[in-house]
């Protein structure tokens, strides 16, 4: 348990391997801990009693020889949040120790060796999760938020799966106004920190351009319980929601906007999006490059050109795809975890090709 759900009970908690009977309910986290929770939901989907029904994308098997992929149940994001954020060297080293133990276990496993790790699935949604040993297990399928802090040789779109953040605001269930366009009186909404790293530095520039403008709400605040309530209210009363990059190219704000049915305005040059082979984000989002966003008045001018008819079309699309971004237990067909397992399944042909080729090659792979 110390590698996964034990951390939900407290630091250094250990016990027998988790079962459906001992799986703790997901805590009412806010902020970063709620955002980086894909590891919990993927594990829970494998423990689900009705696993194996036609509605599920994944079936847990107990015979390793019949498995298509191997899920590694290490809560690397929660481990980082639990131990590194204590500001204590001893606790930080414990996270490093857990990473080392997992990497060592995998590399000694005959099933890892069989495929060089290509058919193993490791969730590491926090940008700093598993950070000391990523390069030791980089053949595996990583489940990530983006690729902002990894080199392409360690993590890339070809082999890995992009997962949505867990949304912080609650889903807008009662969004059934007779005129949703006119009921949303704010044109553009943003609430969040403006002191960020990397691409996130653009937020200060956006603040200077957009603050104080008519029909725009731009609030520079962090994540608090009161702040979440303010964001919920703001997103539900706005036509568009600004989603600039955070410390990495992605931001949880995109998924808060989606479940609020507020058309996302995405400002990021290197963002990668979940299930993009199945979902066309252009149908419900508006994209700006970093340079475009820095032009005085450019974003506002473009948003004002979006007709009511076009906005309603995007709003309806948002309502239809919201369920794809919901993490929940019990899992449901088409929810976030279901979509992620389908993405993993899409990786299998390339994995099998690589494994089969490597078994028969007598010389170094000439494609490398």
Give the key terms:
368 residues; globular; golgi apparatus; 14 helices; five-stranded parallel sheet; alpha/beta; single chain; Rossmann fold; 9 strands; four-stranded parallel sheet
Write up this protein.
The protein is α/β, with parallel strands linked by helices and 368 residues long. It has 2 domains: 195 residues, no CATH class; 146 residues, Glycogen Phosphorylase B (Rossmann fold, 3-Layer(aba) Sandwich), CATH 3.40.50.2000. The protein is 37% helix and 11% strand. The protein has 14 helices and 9 strands. The strands form 2 sheets. The protein has a 5-stranded parallel β-sheet with strand order 6-5-7-8-9, with helices on both faces. A 4-stranded parallel β-sheet has the order 1-2-3-4. The two termini are 39 Å apart. The model has no long low-confidence stretch (mean pLDDT 92).
- Rounded to an integer in angstroms, the radius of gyration calculated over CA atoms is 21 Å
Distance between the termini: 39 Å
**What's the total count of β strands?**
9
The number of helical runs is 14
SSE layout and pairings?
Blueprint: H1 6-9, H2 31-35, H3 38-47, E1 70-71, H4 76-83, H5 89-108, H6 110-115, E2 120-123, E3 141-144, E4 161-162, H7 180-183, E5 186-192, H8 202-210, E6 216-220, H9 225-236, E7 238-244, H10 253-259, E8 263-267, E9 286-288, H11 290-293, H12 298-304, H13 308-321, H14 336-360
Parallel strand pairs: 1-2, 2-3, 3-4, 5-6, 5-7, 7-8, 8-9
